[in-house]
Amino acid sequence: MENHPKDAETGWDPALYDAQHAFVWERAAEVLALLAPQPGERILDLGCGTGHLTSRIAAAGARVVGLDISPEMIAEARRNYPELEFVAGDGCNFHFEQPFDAVFSNAALHWMRDPDAVARSIAEALVEGGRFVAELGAEGNVERLVEALRRGREAIGFGVERDFNPWYFPTIGEYASLLETQGLEVTYALVFDRPTPLEAGEAGLRNWLRMFAASFWSDLDARKQEELFLVVEQRLRGDLFREGRWHVDYRRLRVVARRAE
Ligand code: BEZ
Fold first, then answer.
1. Which terminal residue of the chain, N or C, has fewer Cβ atoms less than 10 Å from its own Cβ?
2. Is 0.85 surpassed by the pTM of this model?
3. What is the per-residue pLDDT across 74-100, written as a single tens digit (0 to 9) for each?
4. Domain of 118?
5. Residue 9 resides in a domain
């Protein structure tokens, strides 16, 4: 992400991200269609991760810049697409000299913990009439997973008193009014469930947990981590494992807005 699972202790693993989590960009065709990038447009891919969607936007003929907080992801994006422009920077506070016709973001905004500051930076980065097109986790996203992680920690004798949840999953109403406060007029918004199958069969859930949910286990030693993963798998198997694959309980918020003229 993409301005995402940057954890102070674990950092990002672009190799694991690209090898096992391709669904992040492969499932983005519809939100890309909403963006409908045009030849010659200047577009920012906010939380570009390893650059795969940045490259699809470029393939439409747009002049695209990828921005991500993770230096590891940016380095991988540059290796993947050396012909494209990638910048390491914070989605909560970014500034470019030249404005953009559109700002695009997929599966990244929920990692950015100051959504007002993100929306302000987006509005300031757009030309008048410019568009913002994004998909992120909606309220209720990965709810069963989070519950299983909290209960799992308790089951192995660890506390759940602090807030482990590193994500921002807004409702439509909350997010629309946040955008409006920054002068972005919402023209489309949709919330929908999107159960998402993971790669790697049985190992899929723990790959996901290792990649994305470090705040729930990074204080545990390796033995306790293993115990937690086993308990979480047991709790979720009936709900989220079918036909040999884990399915994460994703719930998406898709939004289009335009900067007022
Ligand atoms: C998501 O894309 O919804 C997501 C990814 C990783 C962690 C949490 C949510």
1. C
2. yes
3. 999 999 999 999 999 999 999 999 999
4. 14-259
5. no
